[in-house]
Amino acid sequence: MSGSPPLLGTTAVVTGASRGIGRAIALRLGDAGADIALWARDREALEGVARELAARGRLARVFVVDVADSAAVERARDEVRNTMPGVRTVVNNAGAVVRGATAETSDDDWQRVMAVNANGTFYVTRAFLPDLLRPGREHGRIINIASRAGREGTPLLAAYCAAKHAVVGFTRALAAELGAGKVSVNAVCPGSVDTAMLRAGLPDASPDMTPDDIARTVEFLAVTAPPALTGSCIDVFG
Q1: Mean pLDDT of the chain
Q2: CA 108 to CA 159: how far, in whole Å?
Q3: Which residues are catalytic?
Q4: In terms of pLDDT, which residue wins out, 99 or 204?
Q5: β-bridge mates for residue 146, sequence order
Q6: Residue 70 in contact with residue 123, Cβ under 8 Å?
Q7: 11-236 sits in which CATH class?
Q8: What are phi and psi of 202, to 5 degrees?
């Protein structure tokens, strides 16, 4: 990139940032100049990502938060506001998966998968919308990581499919609500990516992408996509 990095002076909030796709997204957006608010439940792993960003000359702060807890999300949001530059980019990447027959899926498993994937995306987005819509702010970007499972049905992944379909629907509804104004809202629907979550949900899958492949798509939506691109769900699978 020539000149100043495009996201310099702004904050990108990345949930599920401790590993896999979230880590790759954090590194990409850090390279684009953003300060990174790293959100996840594993402090040690988050601190490792923060050190990686520091080695690249980027600033990051660690926030240990469960996105399924709306009060915890609001507390972390307040800390981001008080300690970091203005939020311009929000990436809802945190996810959870349970594999099993529908008839054998427990209430707790169903609720946890829905809580992290669907509720968490809603809680984090709701928390930061006032920041993104504040007058005088640069055009904001909300990027939700859905899945191929949010486009199709997958055997033994009913809860995950339902949750990711909810993420896709939420993305489209919020984009329509906001219009092509101050904030773009888009989703990325990855296929088989080499992550621990893929191995948990589809142990026999043969990944054909790396986390950085998805991070490059997120970088496009965060940095170079036109503001009028909103309500899209970009399928990253064949």
Answers
A1: 93
A2: 11
A3: 160
A4: 99
A5: none
A6: yes
A7: alpha beta
A8: -135, 75
Tokens of 54: 């520091």
Does pLDDT of 112 surpass 50? yes
CA atoms of 156 and 158, how far apart (whole Å): 6
Q: What is the mean pLDDT of residues 59-69?
A: 98
Q: What is the pLDDT of residues 12-58, one digit of tens each?
A: 999 999 999 999 999 999 999 999 999 999 999 999 999 999 999 99
Task: Report residue 232 CA to chain centroid gap.
Answer: 15
Q: What is the pLDDT of residue 188?
A: 97
Q: What is d(CA 38, CA 36) in angstroms, rounded to the nearest whole number? A: 6
| Every domain of the chain and the residues it spans | 11-236
Cα-atom radius of gyration of the chain, to the nearest Å? Answer: 17
Q: How far apart are CA 51 and CA 69, in angstroms?
A: 27
Burial (CB count within 10 angstroms: exposed 0-12, middle 13-18, buried 19+), residue 99: middle
Three-class SS of the chain: CCCCCCCCCCEEEEECCCCHHHHHHHHHHHHCCCEEEEEECCHHHHHHHHHHHHHCCCCEEEEECCCCCHHHHHHHHHHHHHHCCCEEEEEECCCCCCCCCHHHCCHHHHHHHHHHHHHHHHHHHHHHHHHHHCCCCCCEEEEEECCHHHCCCCCCCHHHHHHHHHHHHHHHHHHHHHCCCCEEEEEEEECCECCHHHHHHCCCCCCCECHHHHHHHHHHHHHHCCCCCCCCEEEECC
